[in-house]
Amino acid sequence: MLLSAVIFIVAVALVFDFINGFHDAANSIATVVSTRVLSPNLAVAWAAFFNFIAAFGGGVQVANTVGKGIIDFEMLRAAGPSAVLMVIFSALMGAIVWNLLTWWWGLPSSSSHALAGGMIGATVPVLGFQGLVGSGIAKIAAFIVLSPMIGLVLGTAMMLGSIWTVRKQTPLRVDAWFRRLQLVSSAIFSFSHGTNDAQKVMGIIAVVLFGTIWKDRPFHIDWWMIISCHTAIALGTFFGGWRIVRTMGHSLTKLAPIGGFCAETGGGVTIIALAKLGIPVSTTHTITGAIVGVGTTKGWQAVRWGTAGRIIWAWVFTIPAAALVAVMVYGITKLVVGLVG
Asked: What tens digit of pLDDT does each residue of 111-127 get?
């Protein structure tokens, strides 16, 4: 019975990973599609490939943070296998529901913060607030602001530097160069997306396994977790969501290939650097900041601030909304289990 429940929760975690890729596909391909460097089908295949390749060099620092830096893992494990399964199932469902809602609304919200909110909301009814790791949550909350700001600064700096570098070239030649370079920048960003986002689910799967059937073993991330999570997110990206692509690639600002290159590179470098530090940042927030930074080099009027405002509100509500859904799922699940039992 316990093994069947564990397998089910691991499967739900991989479904979340797939939805994460589906939901965040726009982050990886919006700029390369909006600048018409790649067709939509080629763009998602390109992004999915580099999502998967990140399995062989992305590390597991973020996975360890998610597994032990949001919830007090030892306290949760001590509460018993049923508590572990209930908390993780409720957390995943809270994140999945919020991701699907924001996908339907066409808003590029954060899957990372949806999962963090789900974990917070599902933990409190079981362990209370003492079951949360305050320092880890504070770090995630801080980078809601810091990651888009870093992306904005790097995107702006790269755009200004690129404009200065090609200032004596004809627009046609510049466009041709950066169309080729955007293939590289898109690959960098897709690699960073796989590095950061696939690791979140590795951490969740490790909590499930080492909190239940392997509770006598030390917490660590196995190779098969890495491969399966990168496979799931790559498949999700391949079947990615077009509603958010339109928001990111067209509604926020108008991008040329040089702008797309700078936004993707600035965002990708930011995410890879922070992932190496074990900080589960939002790829959505970071690339949005980078795109806005690129747009502002053409003047503040080049950015559609109404769209940016809608995106920011989605960021603000993601953690509390996912937490609320997780609490509701926990209550319903507990009621159903009680009735069946």
From this structure: 888 999 999 999 999 99
